[in-house]
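Sorry, can you check?
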Amino acid sequence: MMPTKLLSAVFFSLLLAAAPALRGQDAVLRPGDQIEIRLGSVPAEDIAQVTGLYTVDGDGYINMPHIGKVRAAGATQSQLQSSIESGYKSQQIYTNPSITLAVPNSARFVEVSGDVRAPQRVPFTADLTVLGAITAAGGFTEYADQGKVSHTSEGQVRIMNIKEIRKNPAKDAKVKPGDKIYVPQSFW
């Protein structure tokens, strides 16, 4: 059996190696998002106090042990990670903490509505595009106006011509969690 300190060191070496995969896309956080936070590079007995699942409250904060509320809404995952690390350092709780964040993709969606076969909230993945989200919602109905698809992202509305995107897939826009895609009905 391995000594506890050695096990902790091995565990956190593996965790740090997996950190880029855990972070996935550096999405902007919103109230209601769940975040998995892992603490490393601190004494083993302190890890369990901080490591866990946190929910961004309605005011946009998460409540961290020892440092209190930290603004999460509007920050990217890497910005929040830096804020938490800085909070622990500035309050001299830990000298060199290592924080890794993960936002489960299952908790993030893109809304697809209008003239698609199965209007729904499509689970977000890092490679999801407008056309991919429409396809995941069953594709267009026979009455859909494919030339005037509305993509709303971060308050900005963009009208897209899916027929043109099929000819040039490089024009297909990547979507972000919380985006809305609306397919209008054609008026012939």
Summary: DSSP finds five helices and ten strands in the chain. Helices lie at 4-23, 44-50, 77-90, 130-136, 162-167.
